[in-house]
Amino acid sequence: MNILSNTSECWAFQQSTIGKKIGFVPTMGNLHAGHASLIERSKQENDIAVVSIYVNPTQFNQQSDFQHYPRTLEQDKALLESLKVDYLLLPDEQTMYPDNYQVQLLETEISRELEGEYRPGHLGGMLTVVLKLLNLVRPTHAYFGEKDYQQLLLVKKMVQALLLPIQIIGCETLRAEDGLALSSRNSRLTDAQRKQATIFPELLRQNISVKLITENLIRQGFKVDYISEKWGRRLGAVWLGEIRLIDNVPV
Ligand code: AMP
């Protein structure tokens, strides 16, 4: 697996792969089977598979969440090697933010709702970093999970709005056997919280009102940011202690 760590290596990569189908999966690392499912799809549909690992400071609302975000680079590299990924993009802060965070992308509709309301700045920070990563890789295809549904909608919208020649492909959420969506943040749950967490996707799927789901979650010890129906999905964000979980299911 080749490592790309700065702009000049990325420009050389772009020159050497002209005319190829390039599949790209951006991640923040601490890779699990959910990430692997995106990578496997990207491998199947393209000539070259690129994955990035970058924990983007501008999409965290709390410094402590950024600091405690699980970083497992050696383990991640071993997984990517086993999946036969061709290139790993591992940019540093200076490569990603030569502007010292002064240039930001702004979307004024989807990014103000739900996640945007409860995590101000998060979706704008995400969009800005995704655009930078797409520019470093110039993929033909990029893969995003439905797990982060608003992110997927926003990336599709940005690509259309900015006329980027890239196909954005949404991939189904991979779940543990008990139904909890796989997420890097799950590793921070205690055993008791991990058991309790399964109530969240179970309730999202039930054929009852959003109000009843919310009341039920609160009764069972969750703090609820929102449960809402939009874009043909039922989406939710809840807290168990310090850990925030998001999920969504088709309506
Ligand atoms: P992250 O590392 O959390 O930024 O996630 C990187 C990509 O993997 C995003 O497009 C996520 O939506 C996707 N992803 C995360 N968890 C899952 C999952 N359980 N199933 C499918 N895709 C996922």
CATH class of the largest domain: Alpha Beta
| CATH-scheme architecture of the largest domain | 3-Layer(aba) Sandwich
CA-based gyration radius:
18 Å
CATH superfamily of the largest domain: HUPs
The outline comes out as globular
- Percent of residues in helical segments? 25-40%
Predict the CATH topology of the largest domain. Answer: Rossmann fold
Mean pLDDT over all positions: 97
Q: How widely separated are the two ends?
A: 40 Å
- What low-confidence regions span 5 or more consecutive residues with pLDDT below 50? none
Polypeptide structure, described:
The protein is globular. The protein is an alpha/beta fold. Strand 2, helix 2 and strand 3 form a beta-alpha-beta unit. The strands form 2 sheets. A 6-stranded parallel beta sheet has the order 1-4-3-2-5-6, with helices on both faces. The chain folds into 2 domains: 170 residues, Rossmann fold, CATH 3.40.50; 67 residues, 2-Layer Sandwich (Pantoate--beta-alanine Ligase, Chain: A,domain 2). Adenosine monophosphate (AMP) binds next to helix 2 and strand 5.
Features:
251 residues; alpha/beta; Rossmann fold; Pantoate--beta-alanine Ligase, Chain: A,domain 2; 2 domains; six-stranded parallel β-sheet; 11 helices; 40% helix; binds adenosine monophosphate
Task: Summarize the structure in short.
By secondary structure, this protein is an alpha/beta fold. The protein has helices spanning 7-16, 33-45, 63-68, 73-82, 93-96, 115-118, 122-137, 149-161, 191-197, 199-205, 210-219; strands at 2-4, 22-27, 48-53, 87-89, 141-145, 167-171, 223-230, 233-240, 243-250.
